[in-house]
Amino acid sequence: MVTPPVKLIGLDFGTTTSKALIVEARYRSDPLSGRPEIQELGAPYRSDIVFTPFIGDRIDDARIRTLLDGWLAAASARPEDIAGGGAIITGLCARRSNAADLAALIRARIGGAVIATADDPGLEAFLAFMGSAAALSRARPGVPLLNLDIGGGTSNLALGVDGEVLQVGCLFVGARHIEVEPGSYRITALSGHALRLLAGLGISARPGDRLAPEQVAAVLAFYIELLEAAVTGREAPFQSELGRSHVDIPFHLAPAPAPDLAPPWLSLSGGVGELVYQRLQGHASPATTTFGDLGIDLAARILASPVLSARLLVPEGGGRATSYGLLRSLTRLSGSTLYLPQPELLPLSDLAIFGRISATSTDEQIHAALALVRRSARGGCLTVSLAGRAPGAVKALGGRIGQALQDLDFPASLPLVLLVPDNVGKALGAYITGWGRLPVTLIVLDELAPKTARFVQIGRMVEQVVPVSFHGMGQAEEAS
To answer: How far is 227 from 62, CA to CA, in rounded Å?
Structure first.
């Protein structure tokens, strides 16, 4: 299978900076397995890293439009060329009042093939790991690796083994909770978390005041204590009211699937991580508070921490880790034996994944899962696990699903998408519909395993395969 080139995009709008990656790619069949895959053609276009534009407390959407159009033009990419990838709005940027409007703007500008999401720190942690640390992790089989994506508003943590994420977390530890005049420590703005932190530390400084050296040191010491506790599994710093207030998603070093993990190696990403690696590569540190925040100071304290620097590895993606993860890790291709009688239904955006059914599910459980989809005005998805690929197993489960659809009087116009890890999409769809006799709008996409993703984005069919992207991670979850 050789197809015309398409474009994949990764957009990251963060607390401090924004950036884009755009790459030309082609769908092809793996020469050994025959499995459809995405082949990148050449190096990605990398935009300059720019400050995220704000007007007061709102994101400057007009400036975002200009940036987006400029990035597309520089990469010779038309909106209709974009076949997959994603855009994420992260950290404090995701908490601005018009963050959802920015997500809608991105969708309208680029089209239905791209995810645009805000305020999903679990997804952000997963993407940063996939963009920054996955290659390092795969190169060290069986060895745990913890990536800390430290930006302006949050530190997103993801623990993985063999390139697969096991656990995610998020702390409100970042460079830009306290904004200062560049070249000084005179405060220009404080986030809500900064106000709580200063109060907890007995510091009364407010915008217009200058932080004394010992006050800066106290803030940084608190941040470092939380990061060190997270990577060593110490719970005590998170027991206090101040510690708890800095937790968005709790992170547990030894998650249930792997309670006996050895101490992890570490990698960093995000703006603060990039500053750390620049110092390790021998670059001079920028001047005091050059970027108008505490990022330079925080990077120096990370390097001075034996806990955070002793087992530190150098990843590929650096500060663009989330963009790499969006571009390379969210979009998958369905198998070529999918069940799709009406290709014109695609694309479908933001369909919720309502649950899972399997060969061991009772009839009541199958009815309940399908009833959840039936209540949604937009339709939805279920993941399906079979007891093997044998025709008998496919036929048996397909017949039970078809009977449940009849019992529920499932509306013919409501899209029902089934995601199956095995290469049986066409057969399962045929058995469910009685070879087309049951009037349902059914799509079965095979060779896909979304695990704990919450939403799915389905692109248009190209050469008998469909690009599919998953998002909505939540606490301690992943997509694959």
So the answer is: 36
What's the rounded Cα separation, in Å, for the pair 424 and 391? Answer: 9
From CA 150, how far away is CA 132, in angstroms rounded? 12
* β-bridge partners, 26: 39
By the 10 Å C-beta count (0-12 exposed, 13-18 middle, 19+ buried), 23 is classed as buried
pLDDT of res. 173: 97
**pLDDT (tens digit, 9 = 90+) per residue, 78-113?**
888 887 777 777 777 777 888 888 888 888 888 665
Query: Residue 350: pLDDT above 50?
Result: yes
Distance CA 418, CA 436 (A): 16
Q: Which two tokens stand for residue 238?
A: 């998170």
C-alpha 291/C-alpha 269 separation (Å) is 17
Buried b (16+ CB within 10 A) or exposed e, 392-427: ebbeebbebbbbbbeeeebeeebbbbbbbbbbbbbb
Which two three-digit tokens encode residue 63?
A: 């400036």
Q: Mean pLDDT: which of 126-135, 227-236, 326-335 is highest?
A: 227-236
